[in-house]
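Narrative summary of target 7.
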Amino acid sequence: MSERARRTAAAGVLACGLLLAACSGADRSTDDRVGGAAESTGDRRPAARRIEQLKVKVLEALPHDREAFTEGLEIVAGTLYESTGLAGRSSMRAGPPGRKPGVRTALPAPLFGEGISVVGRTLWQLTWRNGIAIERDARSLAELRRVPYPDEGWGACLQRDRHRLVTSDGSARLAFRDPGTLASRGEVTVTEEGRPVTGLNELECVGTAVYANVLPTDRILRIDPATGAVTASIDASGLLHDDEIVEGSVLNGVAAVPGTDQFLVTGKFWPRMFRVAFVPA
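Modeled conformation, tokenized:
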């Protein structure tokens, strides 16, 4: 073979090699687009939603029983419902906000009262580690029945649009339950910037959001229950004077004021309750 022929053949081989490499690259690119679609799409997903930083703006201070170890708080049709804890001192109360409860009933020891939620003409009152939940008449607070409740009872609220109860047990978990039987309907882990948030306690459902006290802090979280993501962190510190703080007097109690964007907040052994708005920090 002449020198010119060898050069021509070599050039042909090189061209074929480049062509094969290009085709192979194109195939890999196509494979990446099809087989790796989730990864490529993931790179183009919008950044995580920024968590709003809010604080409480006090609109009014109301009296509160400083002997009440508050565990649950809710307002329905102008009536403030409050559940209190501690074995031998637990109770269920109802009356106008800021006034002495017109109706009150005690829980016999060793029951430890916890979160509450009104469901139509009845309400549920959880217990801490007693293995039961109590259904009561919402008007008289009379006990109607007790049902097994295997989890620790902490907080509870009703998502009316989804017709389900949301409950907490002090972990990072929110559980969804049938409002008539308390049977499980699933759960979600609450995360803040991807990290689980433990200590979820008293709950309040407002529209599609769930608000939760974080024990034993002065924080309230707004949570998207569909994903468990925290959408707002609310600083509720500084509400009490130093001489009003006693051992165990932590923030615990958040209730939306119907028809407004306001809330009532209080705590265990707090002498006052506050009507507040959540505003930018």
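The radius of gyration is 28 Å.
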